């Protein structure tokens, strides 16, 4: 479990295809405190630490994960920056919303406009996920817990304040980018209850 509050920006140091994809990611975490087998969300994708060094960790990424995330559609390249979050521990502050790290699909940025110091982004969600996105609801985009401003069909808007742009990779966002979308778990269950006629 995660909160969608980004705690580090990592950088892809190497990518290798060996059946699955293996990536080495540089970070500023104290890796002595990160156990082998620990979960770290990388741009919102929950991945398992399978090797580590003083300022890096490695993960294996399955074909299934590649097919469902922006990793497969856009590919990670050496030098790419990633939003990182370590798994939630008992007693940690829940500053965002409950995020599983299980990406539901890939959305695309269709518009990126500056509004004062803020960045206004409009995304297009896959058709099968759009119904789960609600105004003033939460979504996780590239692992970041964000509030939806408005929804129109498959498109929804997000406003990013300067702080968010600075402490995440969102300051680099551009029209056409593919992003990992995880819908709010609560929205999924409410929709399921509605389908069953219980809401």
Automatic annotation (TrEMBL):
It is an enzyme of class 2 (transferase). It catalyses: 2 6,7-dimethyl-8-(1-D-ribityl)lumazine + H(+) = 5-amino-6-(D-ribitylamino)uracil + riboflavin. One of its GO terms (biological process) is riboflavin biosynthetic process. The keyword Repeat applies. GO terms for molecular function: riboflavin synthase activity. Its EC number is 2.5.1.9. Pathway: Cofactor biosynthesis; riboflavin biosynthesis; riboflavin from 2-hydroxy-3-oxobutyl phosphate and 5-amino-6-(D-ribitylamino)uracil: step 2/2. Keywords: Repeat, Riboflavin biosynthesis, Transferase. Residues 1-97, 98-194 form the Lumazine-binding domain. Lumazine-binding repeats lie at residues 1-97, 98-194. Catalyzes the dismutation of two molecules of 6,7-dimethyl-8-ribityllumazine, resulting in the formation of riboflavin and 5-amino-6-(D-ribitylamino)uracil. Homotrimer. This is Riboflavin synthase. The lineage of its organism: Bacteria, Pseudomonadati, Pseudomonadota, Alphaproteobacteria, Rhodobacterales.
């Amino acid at each position: 479990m995660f909160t969608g509050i980004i705690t580090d920006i990592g950088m892809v140091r190497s990518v290798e295809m060996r059946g699955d994809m293996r990536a080495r990611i540089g970070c500023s975490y104290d890796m002595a405190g990160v156990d082998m087998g620990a979960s770290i969300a990388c741009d919102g994708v929950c991945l398992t630490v399978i090797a580590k060094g003083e300022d890096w960790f490695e993960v294996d990424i399955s074909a299934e994960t590649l097919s469902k995330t922006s990793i497969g559609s856009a590919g990670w390249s050496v030098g790419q920056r990633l939003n990182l979050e370590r798994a939630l521990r008992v007693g940690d502050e829940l500053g965002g919303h409950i995020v599983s790290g299980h990406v539901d699909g890939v959305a695309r940025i269709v518009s990126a406009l500056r509004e004062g110091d803020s960045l206004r982004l409009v995304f297009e969600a896959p058709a099968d996920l759009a119904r789960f996105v609600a105004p003033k609801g939460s979504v996780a985009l590239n692992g970041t817990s964000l509030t939806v401003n408005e929804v129109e069909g498959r498109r929804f808007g997000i406003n990013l304040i300067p702080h968010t742009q600075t402490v995440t990779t969102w300051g680099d966002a551009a029209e056409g980018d593919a992003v990992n979308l995880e819908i709010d778990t609560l929205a999924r269950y409410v929709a399921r209850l509605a389908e069953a006629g219980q809401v």
